Please model this.
Amino acid sequence: MTDQKKIDILRVTYLRGPNIWTYRPVIEAWLDIGSLEDHPSNTLDGFYERLIGLLPSLIEHHCSPGVRGGFLQRVKDGTYAAHIVEHVTLELQNLAGMRTGFGKARQTSKHGVYKIAFRTRQEQVGREALVAARDLVVAAINGTPCDVASMVSHLRDQVDDLCLGPSTAHIVDAATERRIPSIRLTEGNLVQLGYGINQRRIWTAETDQTSAIAEEIASDKDLTKSLLKSCGVPVPEGELVKSAEQAWQAAQDIGVPVVLKPYDGNHGRGVSLDLRTQSDVEAAYALAHRKGGGSSVIVEKFISGNEHRMLVVGKHMVAAARGEAIWVTGDGLSNIDQLTDEQINSDPRRGTGEEFPLNALLPSQSGEIILELERAGLTPESIPAKDQRVLIQRNGNVAFDVTDLVHPSVAAAAALAARVVGLDIAGVDMVLEDVRKPMHQQRAAVIEVNASPGLLAHIKPADGEGRPVGKAIIEHLFKADRDGRIPIVGITGTQKTGRIARLVAWLAHISGKHVGLACSEGLYLDGRQVESKDCAHWDAGQRLLINRSVQAAVFENGSLTILTEGLAYDKCSVGVVTDVGWQESLLPFDILDAEQTFKVARTQVDVILPTGTAVLNAADPQVVELAELCDGKVIFYGMDANQAAMAEHQQAGEKVVFVRNDQIVLAHGITEIALLPLASLKPAKASQPEMVMAAVAAAWALGIPPELIGAGLRTFESNPRKTPY
Model:
């Protein structure tokens, strides 16, 4: 084929919540593959070889065959360009460090036009990965150059800049394992876990239980030591100084060797160990003073041993890591900078990004390393003799897991130190000769207590087993039987869903809950309309879920909302479907009939919790079919109790709501409750019995007592100006 093929991206939509494709956020893209519709992959000379040459890691994609290499087999046998773009998009995200695996491709009713959907954890990264994937596939088809390494490098930079940091992501993943929902509140690492009144918040390794006072204490190293000492926690003798002369005087008073470190510092910056001479102390003072931003400097007794980081969550130590001194060995030819790159930075565990458990060492750029070398009479440009060992760094490098070796008394001392400072999550730095020995049998001391400790050394240690510290933090925030959720009702269909939503919100409101409502008639909080415009969309829904006062929430979800944004919540307690009604407004989405609309409506049922309930209109055969897709219970409603679906459901001992002799009846198997006569309701409600029954069934599913439901029906005003909802 000599003509240049192309693929056009026609439309890109970020579906931020559950959607017709999956439960997770995805990007849906419409692709026009043009003449490639008539040329599947097995007809493109050399394409297969060029594709795997550009992206050999596609071998890991299973696709429909369900085995390693399954997707590439599809390419060899013949598949279409849109399907290939989908897989390449996923793989580029994976290579950039944003792991994901879900993707689908579907042909539309228009020749050569496909819809693809792929999971992405960050919208911008996903969009750029899509464009890069299209360009790569087109290059492989046409045999033109493609710089995949540059593509991946750019995407990796985007991931580093825009995605959650590894510590935060680890905690969020642990929450997801517990079926606890999460909402990212900023472009940084502030994340909400749970909804409404039951939510908790984290910021990296800080929580909404982390005391600001405790953080201030932890940043004041002198005060921290004083408090720890008063409570019996061993700490090194020390003194706060404000000049190099004072530092040397303090060193003499304390007795060398000593340690110097910034009064307000972290991550080992500006820390110098084992100082024995005046010149070393004065040089270390200058470094600590500079790294501490001009603040005071602490001089304290040097304690021999290895540095350890103990992670304390709540009342317990949950992980421990040991640090080691770093050395290089001379070869008689290379300088220290070169030796460091060859012998240390070549370790794949080292790097400059957050995903690396160990930092890359740069002697010529590190004041701490330069000072250490100067004490040995060397510089980064010095060439050590063959086999000469040179100390590069004494502290830091805390990435060697020793959790299982920690003596109970050491763990207890770490937990006590965190408690004394007042931190619910703390990184307690200790110097120990042997972590396996009791505290009193060795020289040991707590040298620092850190708020917001980094978790990477425990999640991904350089050596040893990674620890589930995110799980420990989630268990600290949520009791075992709690998932951070609130009762949520979602309503979809075309039959007065806004009115149903208002009535359900009213019934929940009079049951004593602070209720949020997002519907086409406005946004409501606790019976107060805060916006009068159409709020049946994702943004308005999120406003309810992040509100700490909301105890229950009701959402109206039209088909357009599901198709253009996704649902505002991940799961719900009650899902109401009034009908599967096709509308002309769905044509731009290639939804051409009621059969395709069924896939949109089922989204509401797919997200119902196993402990939840689907409320379904028994008069609509397609809605009845949705019952099989529900993970929870089902309540059917309808005017005729003898309708087949209703009768069979009731005979099976399940719940139904119907009208008999003008009475609204709640039936649970053979047990029936006559709620009230339709005639007793105001005309606007009495004339819309299906609407009333849908709301009644939803309220019943929420556990609202029938007597209260009846009272709510009588007091609800259809005119929004006359009722709080």
Remarks:
- The radius of gyration is 32 Å.
- Residues 364 and 598 are 65 Å apart (CA to CA).
- The mean pLDDT is 93.
- The first strand starts at residue 8 and ends at 15.
